[in-house]
Design brief:
Elements: H1 2-29, H2 34-38, H3 45-55, H4 61-73, H5 88-123, H6 128-142, H7 145-159, H8 177-210, H9 214-221, H10 226-237, H11 239-264, H12 269-279, H13 282-310
């Protein structure tokens, strides 16, 4: 297993480099540039040239990429073009904990609700309860995150006043875990909604197939309780599609967080990505692209490791 993990990590290196090349090329091909938003129309042309020379924006594309890649390998992602002199790594690290908190909570909510619902639906197929769960899952997949977030803000935040409508904590208030959790509830649920719905369908489908196998009927005929048969014999064999879903959820949460964080004013890297895209802050965009690619690699690697843990038939 150790040698397999090492090989996967080494294989990820050229993949990450390829992603940076494509991302850098797309950014350079986009019309305009950071100077179109940073510089006043009345600014002198020579001042604009000085700005481009300072940040290397007038260098050939391959030269810019080579400098960026060399600095990145040293752990330096450059400085922001918008916030003059602020290191990109500092901007990312200031917001990364908020996004990890949001992602971790939403993932926990999705699995704690979706897996039991999927199992419960699979053990009672084609009943009213099963149809209710199925319809709810389809609605969850079809509902856009931004619309659900706005509806929750209007209903639970404005009309009922149960939860704050934005931010990570109450302004000018002392640190409180309860206050953080209070602000976390709505964005975490919105981010988890689509994954929760898809995971429920995956769990139901997988468990429904497993519960029809001969070894399940044999276990039932031996007099085991239904709960033991479902959880011990059925769930472990039906976990493979669920683990695959887990590997896909992790990177997808970054994209979902960009929308959710913008709706709720949550200061995370998703919102930072949106802000940087509008202001053409190239160094920040490239740093967040690399970070997202790393999450994709980690998600797939974790899925492969969990395969071997939960299914003894799989060996590496």
């Amino acid at each position: 297993m150790t040698s397999y993990i090492i090989r996967r990590v080494l294989m990820a290196i050229p993949l990450l480099i390829g992603i940076t090349i494509i991302s850098f090329a797309i950014i350079q091909a986009a019309p305009g540039g950071p100077t179109t938003l940073l510089m006043d129309p009345k600014i002198k042309p020579e001042d604009k040239i000085k700005f481009e020379e300072k940040y290397g924006l007038n260098d050939p594309v391959h030269v810019q990429y080579g400098k960026w890649l060399g600095n990145m390998l040293k752990g330096d992602f450059g400085t922001s073009l918008i916030r003059r002199g602020v290191p990109v790594s500092e901007m990312v690290m200031n917001r990364l904990p908020n996004t990890l908190l949001l992602m971790g909570t939403s993932t926990l909510i999705a699995f704690l609700i979706a897996v039991p619902l999927g199992i419960f639906s699979a053990t009672r197929p084609y009943t009213k309860l099963d149809y209710t769960v199925t319809v709810g899952s389809f609605l969850g997949v079809a509902t856009p995150n931004f619309w659900l977030g706005l509806m929750m803000i209007i209903f639970f935040g404005v009309q009922l006043g149960w939860f704050p409508t934005g931010g990570v904590a109450t302004l000018n208030a002392p640190f409180s875990i309860w206050d953080r959790l209070h602000h976390l509830v709505m964005p975490a649920f919105v981010l988890a909604a689509a994954d929760m719905a898809a995971l429920t369908r995956y769990t139901r489908s997988s468990m429904l197939e497993v519960l029809q196998q001969d070894y399940i009927r044999t276990a039932k005929s031996k007099g085991f309780r239904e709960r033991t048969v479902v959880l011990k014999h059925g769930l472990r064999n039906g976990l493979i599609p669920i683990i695959t879903m887990f590997g896909l959820i992790l990177p997808n949460l970054i994209g979902g967080a960009a929308i959710t964080e913008s709706v709720f004013g949550w200061p995370g890297i998703g919102r930072l990505f949106i802000e940087s895209a509008f202001t053409r802050d190239y160094p920040v965009i490239m740093a967040l692209t690399v970070l997202t690619a790393v999450f994709v690699v980690i998600g797939n690697l974790l899925a492969d490791i969990l395969y071997a843990i939960f299914d003894p038939r799989i060996e590496y």
